[in-house]
């Protein structure tokens, strides 16, 4: 009986050791395989893509009603034929740079694409429009060496009727001094004569 118990105990220990070895081997294989798989997935989007530089400038007037106080709050987008967007915010001097994925015909647009203003000399409202990739498109061909000197165009759009802000000259106010109307003297003489005749008649 003791011999049987020793054999059973020894077999039980061996089974546990084998299970532990199998689990350890499985974990090691997983630890080695997963980083390689993750690295491969991460690297896939960049394979075969050569980015090229784009640079340009955009004009800006801060006196708008849209709470856009700096050109750095604008965003310039470049969209390739596949619909991939690259974006950049201009620096304080209105210049921008970005790297786009290869040579292609790019559509440039700006967000926000409309800023509203007031002409203080005519009291008329107007808007400055930037390209919007739809009603006001702006496209550029970008070569494999990139493109520089792009100037984002703008369009003027009047939105309010012009009105004069110069006050009109005051109209002449008639004098308050009473002036006799034509024939006033003759009428007064006739009235005086009538009064004198009435007094003379009563005395009789």
Would you kindly provide a written description of the structure presented here, covering whatever features stand out?
- The chain is an alpha+beta fold and about 200 residues long.
- It has 2 domains: about 1-45; about 50-160, Carboxypeptidase-like, regulatory domain (Immunoglobulin-like, Sandwich), CATH 2.60.40.
- The protein has helices at about 1-45, 185-204; strands at about 50-60, 75-80, 85-90, 95-100, 105-110, 115-120, 125-130, 140, 145-150, 155-160.
- The strands form 3 sheets. It has a 4-stranded antiparallel beta sheet, with no helix packed on it.
- Strand 6 (about 115-120) and strand 7 form a beta hairpin.
- The longest helix has about 40 residues, at about 1-45.
- It is elongated, with a radius of gyration of 47 Å.
| Uncertain residue segments | 28-45, 166-170, 172-178
Overall mean pLDDT score? Answer: 76
Helix content: 25-40%
Largest sheet: 4 strands, antiparallel
Question: Strand content of the residues, in percent?
Answer: 25-35%
Report the structural category. Answer: alpha+beta
E-strand count:
10
The overall number of domains is 2
Per CATH, the superfamily of the largest domain is Carboxypeptidase-like, regulatory domain
What is the ordering of alpha helices and beta strands?
A: HEEEEEEEEEEH
| Major sheet: arrangement of strands | 3-2-5-8
Helix tally?
A: 2
CATH topology of the largest domain: Immunoglobulin-like
Indicate the CATH class of the largest domain: Mainly Beta
Shape descriptor reads elongated
Q: What would you say the CATH architecture of the largest domain is? A: Sandwich
Radius of gyration: 47 Å
């Amino acid at each position: 009986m003791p011999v049987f118990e020793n054999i059973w105990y020894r077999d039980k220990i061996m089974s546990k050791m084998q299970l532990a070895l199998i689990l350890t081997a499985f974990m090691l294989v997983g630890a080695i395989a997963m980083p390689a798989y993750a690295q491969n997935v991460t690297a896939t989007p960049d394979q075969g893509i050569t980015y090229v530089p784009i640079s340009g400038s955009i004009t800006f007037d801060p006196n708008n009603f849209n709470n856009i106080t700096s050109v750095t709050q604008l965003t310039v987008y470049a969209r390739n034929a596949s619909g991939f967007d690259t974006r950049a915010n201009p620096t304080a001097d209105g210049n921008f740079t970005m790297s786009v994925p290869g040579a292609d015909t790019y559509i440039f647009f700006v967000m926000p694409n409309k800023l509203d203003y007031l002409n203080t000399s005519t009291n008329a409202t107007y808007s400055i429009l930037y390209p919007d990739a739809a009603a006001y498109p702006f496209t550029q061909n970008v070569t494999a060496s990139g493109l520089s000197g792009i100037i984002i165009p703008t369009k003027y759009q009047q939105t309010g009727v012009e009105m004069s802000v110069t006050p009109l000259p005051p109209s002449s106010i008639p004098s308050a001094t009473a002036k006799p109307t034509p024939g006033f003297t003759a009428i007064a003489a006739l009235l005086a004569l009538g009064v004198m005749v009435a007094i003379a008649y009563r005395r009789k």
